[in-house]
Write a structure and sequence with these properties.
Number of helices: 8
Strand content: under 5%
Largest sheet: none
Helix content: over 70%
Number of domains: 1
Radius of gyration: 20 Å
Distance between the termini: 6 Å
Oligomer: single chain
């Protein structure tokens, strides 16, 4: 895509799109803190819990395994997103509906940003998927609290989720480098 250059207008439009990532990220991260609040309320109200500790221990071990896989997948997915060459392999020409791309780009004024709209949509989708995998870990901790009454589970699972979310937070510089790489590729 020779001849297309990132202008100040391009950067402004990309920052608007990127702001949506931050909103989603903050909402998902905030919900994990609400899970901690729920456990405090449950402890104070004397919520009835499951008495079968062997069952809880088995379930906790299963959830730990699932959480490890989910967090690995979240980091693996994000690593591939910000590797421009891998990213272009994933996009392909028809993997994202052209009608969706048209709706997404209809308000954009800058032509270079419109041309890379598939990349932006795919990046947003993969970020949300990686954050949802992190949040799933916190939800598993909350489920164990509901079943056992032991808030340690949410502290461990929620802590791992929050730490992962911190590492996977939106990074405009990385995103911009992928975009600039896209603009330099023929056919992008």
């Amino acid at each position: 895509m020779r001849g297309i250059v990132m202008t100040e207008e391009s950067i402004r439009e990309l920052k608007k799109v990127f702001a949506i990532k931050w909103i989603i990220y903050l909402m998902l991260t905030t919900s994990i803190f609400f899970y901690f609040l729920i456990t405090v309320i449950l402890k104070k109200t004397g919520f009835a819990f499951v008495e079968d500790f062997k069952f809880i221990r088995i379930l906790a071990n299963l959830f730990i395994g699932f959480s490890a896989v989910a967090l690995f997948a979240a980091f693996f997915i994000r690593r591939n997103v910000y590797n421009p060459d891998k990213f272009f392999e994933m996009i392909g020409d028809k993997k994202i509906n052209d009608e969706l791309v048209e709706k997404f780009t209809s308000r954009m004024k800058d032509e270079s940003v419109k041309r890379i709209s598939k990349l932006i949509l795919m990046s947003n989708t993969i970020d949300v998927i990686s954050w949802a995998l992190c949040e799933a870990v916190a939800i598993l901790g909350l489920v164990l609290v509901f079943l056992s009454g032991n808030t340690f589970y949410l502290q461990a699972f929620g802590g791992a989720a929050l730490l992962s979310m911190a590492f996977l937070r939106p990074n405009f510089t990385n995103f911009l480098s992928v975009v600039e790489h896209a603009l330099g590729r023929p056919g992008a």
